Amino acid sequence: xxxxxxxxxxxxxxxxxHERVAGRLRRGASEAVYRAMWQALAAWCAxxxxxxxxxxxxxxxxxxxxASRQGLQAADGVLTPRYQQxxxxxxxxxxxxxxxxxQQAAAPPLxxxxxxxxxxxxxxxxxxxxxxxxxxxxxxxxxxxxxPDLQQVLALLCxxxxxxxxxRWQTWRDRCAAALQLGAGLGPGDVxxxxxxxxxxxxxxxxxxxxxxxxxQVAATGSAPAHTAPLAxxxxxxxxxxxxRRQAECLTGPWLLPSTRSGKPWGxxxxxxxxxxxxxxxxxxxDGGGSFRLRHSFALRQLQHGHGHDTIAAWLxxxxxxxxxxxxxxxxxxxxxxxxxxxxxxxxxxx
Length: 351
Description:
This protein is about 50% helix and about 5% strand. It is mainly alpha-helical. The protein folds into 2 domains: about 5-130, no CATH class; about 145-335, Intergrase catalytic core (hpI Integrase, Chain A, Orthogonal Bundle). Helix 4 (about 80-105) runs antiparallel to helix 5 (about 110-115) and helix 7 (about 170-185) packs antiparallel against helix 9. About 30% of the residues are buried.
């Protein structure tokens, strides 16, 4: 006999099926993220005495759950706002779907038919206690690494630049991908879409004694134009090491970061899990969000070092000025724990 899932999990599964059918959840990695968030929440609910039900998950209970999470702290010492908002939104959507199903079951036939054609609507019950007082409800602060955590990741990746010949090649692929995000501001999709032909080495001036610098030609996506992303020198060293390891391993195919020796493209879920492993190797809790944290931390780091908004936006490939404003709002708290910026003039290259 098949084991039926617990009611809390069953409610999530029903919502997930409805979202797929409605065409609102088409990407496998998004589903994987939601599943991971819900499984952690469901495990915590089951461990409470008495165990919590879906309808029990309101502001106070969610605050207690978020307080139990470790490794998700932002620079001001509270849990990252984006994680809070995503979790609260997910709970509300599952609750709204459950209420919608109950309405259908209790309604007369004609009313039930009308309900079936009207999608469930989540009520706006978000607890303001879950949001920073200075953040408008409409804002969605970029999920980023607190400055001390950023230094741990940088230390790991810079070590990778000098020891890329040891260990499994997949480990160094993963760390190179993280370096491209933290050292050039690439998004996860940009990293997976990079081809070998997109990599450009810029020779140094003659007799300068400086290493080559690197640029990436990032293809256009539905939300960003094609653009050139220069790499910070440390990230360029990681990339050069990866290219040497890739050649030594005789990896084939056009992709810069393939998933197999035969050159198959890297999948979204696999890259997401790879980023989690890199963060875990750096001594961080991997449950603080996806690898977009590295891209957002790149932007904050460049702001710290004095680069202009237009310059950083061009490196990121963003055209919406609101994006840079969101980063600017995070800077005061982030700088409180960041290392002092360099005293030399602002460099013309990412750092």
